[in-house]
Amino acid sequence: MLNILSVVIAEVRKQALQYFFQVRTLFWNVILPFAMVATFYFMYLPFIGKGILISVEPLVDLPIVGFLVAGQVIYNLYTNMILGGGFFDAEREQQTLEIMLLTPASRFAVLLGSALAGLLLNVWMFIALVLLIALTPGVGVNVQDPTALFGSLFLSVFSLLGLGMCLGCIFVLTRRGGQISASIQEPIDFLSGLRFPVRILPGLLQAFASVLPLTYGIRATRLSLIGGATLLDISVDLLSLLVMGLLSMLLSRHAIAVIERRAKKEGTLTLF
Amino acid sequence: MPVSIETVDLTRIYRTTSGMLWRRKQKEILAVDRVNFSIDRGELFGLLGPNGAGKTTTVKILATLLEPTSGSAFVEGFDVVKQPRRVQERVNMVTGGERMLYFRLTGRENLRYFSDLYGVPRSIAKKRIDEILEMVGLSGRGDDYVEQYSKGMRQRLQIARGLVNDPLVLLLDEPTIGLDPHIARDLRAFVREQLIRKQGKTVLLTTHYMYEAEELCDRVAIIDRGRIVALDTPEKLKNSVSKEISLKLTLVGEISSVEPLLKKAEGVTAYAFQQQERGEVTVTILAEDERSVSSVVSQILSFGFAVRRFETGKPTLEDVFIKLTSRGID
Amino acid sequence: MSSMSNLGKIVLSTAWKDLVFSYRVWALGSFALRFFWPITTLASAYLLYEKLFGGYLGTLFRSAAGTSDYISYVAIGNALYIYTFSVAFIVGRVSYWDMRQGVLEAVLLTPANRFLLMGGHILSGIINATIDFVFLLLVSIPFGLRFGKINPFTFGIGFALTLVAMYGFALFINTFTLYFRDRTNTSNTIVLLFYAFSGVICPVSLLPSWAQIASTLIPLTYGNMIVRAALTQGTEPVYLTTQIIVLTILAFVYVLAGIVSLRFTERDLKRTGKYSVY
After folding, report:
1. pLDDT tens-digit readout, A221-240
2. Distance from CA of B329 to the nearest CA of A (A)
3. Strands B280-287 and B245-252, how do they pair?
4. Looking at the DSSP assignment, which residues form a beta bridge with residue B39?
5. Looking at the DSSP assignment, which residues form a beta bridge with residue B282?
6. Could you tell me where the DSSP H helices lie in chain C?
C-alpha cells in the first residue's frame, strides 16, 4: 500500500514539475475555458437577448451564464483528466515509456498518479472559475445544500479519474492514443450537455449520453451550484458517477496488465 | 590550398536559467572560448576533446545553426552570420544519434525531401539518391520506413542525408557514437576513401575517440573547456610527448589514496585518473624515462596497491591531452 | 526559370511531405475529427434552433445578419472557419512538431526559403481544409443549408484575403507554439477565440461591446461578412468596399507580424541553441 502511494506521489510530482508552471497551462486552464464559455454563450445570442433561463429536468430554470460556466467547470476537470492520460503520449515521444514500464512499480499506481496530476493542474483554475461564477452578475450562485455541491464535485472527480485511467491505458496500448482521445472529444462535448440540455437530443443520442460520466457530473454540479438542489435531488446522478468511477477504475486495473503485455509483444512501446 | 573553413576568435556563451519564481537564477556557460583555426580545402580536420569541450557548439556555428557570441567564422569565404544561405548551400552536417530524420517517411522519401529543400534538380536528385543509398549500403531498404531501421541503418541514412546536396564541406559531429565497432570502422573507411580521396570534400570531424582522430585526420585540434590547447598533425602532436613513456595501470584503490603518491613521484611529467567500478582506478602516467617508470611502479607496489592491469607503449593523442590538461579524455 | 521551379519545389515538396505524414500518422484521428466536427457543429445549431427555441429567432438577428436563415448562416461561417482552423491550428505547430521529432535542425540547416517552407505547410493545410469544406457543405444540406444568388468573384476576394491573413497568423502561431513549447493548448485557444468573436455563430453586432471590439481585429470577421454576402445574396464587391479594405489592411498587418515572428523564431533558436529542448 505504501509502495503504491509512493509511486502515485512520484508520478504526480514528476508531471506537476514538468507541466505546472508553463504558459500553456494558463491557456489550457484559464483562457480556453473562458473562450469555450464565450463561444457557447454567443451561440444562444441569435435567439435571445441576455438573461435567458434554461430549463433542466427536474424542471429548474437556470441562468444561461451559470448554466454554461458550471458545465465548463466539470468539463475542464474532464479535459485535465485527458491531459493526464496524454502524459503517456509525451512519455512515448521522449522514449521514457519503456523505461517506466521497466520498473516494478504498480501500473495502477502510475495510471492513478498521472490522472491525479492532470487534476492537480486544474485545482487553481477551478477555484478561479468558482469565484468567477460567484462574482458575475446574473449568474446567481444558489447553493442550498453544500453537501450536494461537495458530493457532485467529489464524485465527478472520482469518476473522471477512472476515465482518465482508462484513457491512459489506451495511450500505452497504441501510439494512436492521442488521435483516439481527440476523436472522441467532439462527440463527448456534443452529448454531455455542455452546450445545451441533454433533453433536446434525439432519444438514441440521449441513450449514448447516459453512459458518459461527464453528463451526470455536469448536471449534478449545475443543479447543486446554480439550481439550489439538495442531495436527494441529484442522488441518481451521484450514484451513477460512483458506479461509473468504480467500474472504470476496475477496468483500467485489469486492462493495463493485458495492454502492457500486448504492447511489448507488438513492440509498440518505442514507436510514436 | 585555398582555405575552406576559418574561425577568428570564435566565442559562444550559453545563458541558462534554473529554478522557479523567486529562486530563478541565471547562469552563463562559456562553451567556446576564442577559438582560432583554419582548414584547407580537401583536408580532413579533427576536433578532439572530451564531452562538453565545445566541439558540437563549434560545428553548429559553422553549420549556421548557432550564432557566435563574438568572433567570426567563414565557410568557403562566406560569413556564417551575415551570409548564412550561401554557407548552407555549400555545407551539410551529420550528427551521431538517431535524430534529424522523419521516422514516418521511408529512407528514400527523406532523401527526396531534403534534396528538394537544397534545390537539387529532380533529374539529378533521383540518380544521386540511388547512388548515395548504394554507397551507404541501404539500397535494398530505401523504401522502408525509418522507424523500422536499426540504429546503424539510421546513422547510415543520416550520412546519406548529409550528402544529398553534394556539399563542399561536410561537418561530421561524432558520427560513430553508439555504432557497432565494425560499422564504425566501415564508416571511417567510407569517409577516408569516398569523401576525401575520391570526392575531395573538406571534412571537419569531431570525436572523443582519439584512435579515430589518429586514423583519419590530416590535422587535429585538441579542444578542452572551449579552448584549443593544441593543433597539429597527429604525428607531430604525439612527437611532443615522444620522449616520454606512456604507462597505463589499473589499480585496486581510490583516486584520493593514489594521487598523493604520484604528486611526489620523480620523473612523472603528467598523469590522469579515471575511477572505475568495483573499487578500481585507471591511472595514465607519462614518465620521463624507463627509470622513472620502474620507480613509480615500485612505489605503487610498495604501498600495497594491487595492480590488475599494466600497459606501456608509445604515447597516443590521449597522452598529449593528459599532458596539456592533466585530465583524461573520457 | 530553374530558380522559380526550385521555389515551387520547396512548396510542393513540403506540402507533399505533410500530407503523406499526416495520413500515415493521423489517419484515424484526422478522419474522425473531420467527420465528427462538422456534424456536431451543425447538429448543435439545428437542435438549438428547432428543439430548444422552437424555430424562433430573436428579432435582432434578421437585421444584424441580413437573413433569417440561421442554419445557412452558421454553415457558411463554419465553412470559412475550417480554413482558419486548418491553416492556423495545424500549420501553426509544424515547427514544434519538427522539434519534437528532432528534425528541426536538419530543416534549418538547408538554404530553403523559410517563407516558402511555411507556404508548403499551409498548402497542405488548405488541401485538407478544402476536403473538410466540401464535406461540411454536404452535411449542412440535410440540416437546411440553402444558397441564394452566388457571386464567385466576391467570394474569391473574401476567401483569398482571408487565407492571406491566416498565412501571417499561422507564422505567428508557429513562433508562439515553438517559443512556449506547446503543441496544442495555445493554438487551440486562439483559434477558438477567433471562432467565438468573428461572427461564425452569431452576428458581431449582437455580441457584447467588449467582444465587438475584439472582433474588429480578426480578419475572419470581415471574411465571413464578404463570403456570406457572396454566397447568399450574390453581392457585388463594390457594396462591400469597407469590409474588403479593412480585410486587406488586416491581411497586410498579420502577414507582417508573421514575417517578423518567423525571423524571430530562427534568430532565437540560433541565439539560445534550444533545438531539442521541449
Report:
1. 999 988 889 999 999 999 99
2. 29
3. antiparallel
4. B5
5. B250, B274
6. 2-25, 27-46, 59-65, 70-84, 94-101, 104-108, 114-143, 152-179, 185-197, 209-215, 219-232, 241-272
Whether the link from the prior residue into A58 is cis, omega within 30° of 0, is yes
Mean pLDDT value across residues B184-197: 88
Q: Is the dihedral of CA C249, C254, C255, C256 positive or negative?
A: positive
Q: B265-275: b or e for each residue (b if 16 or more CB lie within 10 Å)?
A: bebbbbbbbee
What is the Cα–Cα distance from B237 to B291, expressed in whole angstroms? 24
Q: Which of A45-54, A156-165, A184-193, B279-288 has the lowest mean pLDDT?
A: A45-54
- The number of residues in chain A equals 272
A244: which 3 cell numbers?
A: 461509473
**Which residues, other chains included, contact B245 with Cβ-Cβ below 8 Å and sequence gap of 6+?**
B286, B287, B288, B289, B290, B292, B293, B312, B315
d(CA C221, CA C104): 34
The pLDDT value recorded for residue C98 is 87
Of B72-76, B232-236, B297-301, C224-228, which gets the smallest average pLDDT?
Answer: B297-301
In angstroms, the first-to-last Cα distance of chain C is 41
- From the CA of A147, how many Å to the nearest CA of chain C? 31
Q: Does residue C224 register a pLDDT over 90?
A: yes
Q: Are A117 and A84 in contact (CB under 8 A)?
A: yes
Residue B19: CB atoms within 10 A of its CB come to: 9
Q: Give the separation between CA A82 and CA A178, rounded to whole angstroms.
A: 9
Please indicate whether, in this complex, the C-beta atoms of B103 and C273 are within 8 angstroms of each other: no
- CA end-to-end span of chain B: 34
The pTM (predicted TM-score) of the whole model is 0.80
Name chain B's partners: 3 or more CB pairs within 8 A. Answer: A, C
The x, y and z cell numbers of residue B234, run together, are: 597527429
Which residue type is seen at B6? E
Report pLDDT for C160: 94
Contact partners, residue C204, CB within 8 Å, separation at least 6: C64, C197, C198, C211, C212, C215, C221
Backbone φ, ψ for residue A140 (5° rounding): 70, 70
What is the tens place of the pLDDT at every residue in A29-75?
Answer: 778 888 888 899 899 988 876 556 776 655 567 778 888 888 988 88
Give the gap in angstroms from C-alpha B150 to the nearest C-alpha of chain A: 13
Taking the CB of residue C98, how many other CB atoms lie within 10 A of it? 19
Neighbours of B214 (CB within 10 A): 18
Q: For residue A22, what is the nearest residue in chain B, using CA coordinates?
A: B20
Ordered by start, the domain boundaries in chain C are 2-272
